Amino acid sequence: MGLYSNKFFSSFTSASSWFEVYAAFSTIMMLFRTAINDLIPHQFRSFIASKLEAFFSKYQANSNVSVKINQFWDENVGERNELFDAALAYLPTQISHTYKSLKVGRLQNRKHLELAVDGSEDVVEEFEGIKFTWKLDEGSKEESNNNSRRYNFLLTFDEKHRQRVLDRYLPHVLKTFETMKDQRRIVKLYSRLDDYWNESELSHPATFDSLALCPELKKDIIDDLARFLRRKDLYKKVGKPWKRGYLLYGPPGTGKSSLIAAMANYLKFDVYDLELSSIYSNSDLMRSMKEASNRCIVVIEDIDCNKEVHARSKPNGASDDRDSDSDSEDPKMRSKRFTLSGLLNYMDGLWSSGGEERIIIFTTNHKEKIDPALLRPGRMDMHIHLSFLKGKAFRILASNYLDVKGDHPLFQQIDDLLEKIQVTPAVVGEQLMRYEDPDVCLEKLVQFLKQKGKDSDSE
């Protein structure tokens, strides 16, 4: 028996013997497959295959995992989760024609139609061969604050792709969201009311083309903004927060608010209008600024009207009673209220690291009343004096209000009058709205300016 076995196996040592076995096996499999195809209909074979697949997958270990993406990262301070906002905007763009549960509408004061998932149906997407399932879910009562709704997304995927989700997919969602915002950027205006930011759309139409500013000053501002935007790496290299401060000062009606709107529309930055009178402590200031997004303009208007930012010294060495009281105040009580040092720390101190690519704008009618500590470079980097109307800026107003391009016979007379009197763009703009006929309007403006000059001489 042993000798027979050795001879049997030794006969397979040649390559030709192995080929004969392979050919015989292939022939048998072909005959078997042909018999099945002839005897069993295609529909019945597909039915059996689907049932077998469902049977085995039912008992196969489930390797799917879900991650929760909350609407707010920290409920206590109301800090939004940018990844939630990104998913909310990103998913409607990925929904195929088979998705039948999509909300569409136009919100008040919005220019475009809005698309959104409504939570009644999962959104399934495939990215780089990986299947992802998104579900919008309303949070539990414990996750809600002040009876307001809080939502979250549940993202489900195969656990073996965990690292690719973190390294590739979620960054892809965020990057797509940023591109969408740049392409269809709606500038928002946030006003702080009762410890939270109230959101609305910034509808101010001002642009640098429409601003009644001296062309040289306008160019300086635009160049400075463009230089700031492209210097992210330089700020990081020298160890400075990526922020820039502007001080807008001048008489009322010289266009400070219009300039802020023009800067926001030019940069596509949201505007956060911060009333210092609504800030009760340094920690309150830090929390408010932490809630503000990156790529924004923080506006603090009429800063000279806040007692904490007045100059801390009087002429001839006279002391300020308010500062004396502040010095004698209990340190614990002082730390609980809003102080100038808190504002300075936000601008360029340790607290300034919260938020990037931000513009900080102070406005004032009385620059001399502001504490010099606020005015130095690094805090207020560019001081912009918005003064009374002159000839070059008037040409822009005439174009905006009257559609008068080029020259006009009355322009030189108006230029001469503007050199002699002090009048703001707001006052002249109001005069230009009173008559529709350009010639009549300019004649009336000449009369108005002459009378204003007489009134000034008589005072």
Could you walk me through the main structural features you see in this protein, from its secondary elements to its overall organization?
19% of the residues are buried. The chain has three domains: 64-140 and 148-184; 189-308 and 337-385, 3-Layer(aba) Sandwich (Rossmann fold), CATH 3.40.50.300; 391-458, no CATH class. α14 (391-402) crosses α15 (411-420), α14 runs parallel beside α16 (425-432) and α15 runs parallel beside α17. Residues 1-5, 311-327 and 329-335 have low confidence and may be disordered. It starts with a helix and ends with a helix. The protein is built from 17 helices and 15 strands. β6 and β7 (130-138) form a beta hairpin. The radius of gyration is 35 Å and the shape is elongated. The strands form four sheets. It has a seven-stranded mixed beta sheet with strand order 10-9-12-13-14-11-15, covered by helices on one side. A four-stranded antiparallel beta sheet has the order 1-8-7-6, covered by helices on one side. The chain has a two-stranded antiparallel sheet with strand order 2-3. The protein has helices at residues 2-10, 15-39, 42-58, 82-94, 162-183, 215-229, 232-238, 256-267, 282-291, 321-328, 331-335, 340-348, 372-375, 391-402, 411-420, 425-432, 438-458, and strands at 64-70, 72-74, 79-80, 102-105, 114-117, 123-127, 130-138, 151-158, 188-193, 196-201, 243-249, 270-273, 296-300, 358-364, 382-385. With 459 residues, the protein is an alpha/beta fold. One of its GO terms (molecular function) is ATP binding. This is AAA+ ATPase domain-containing protein.
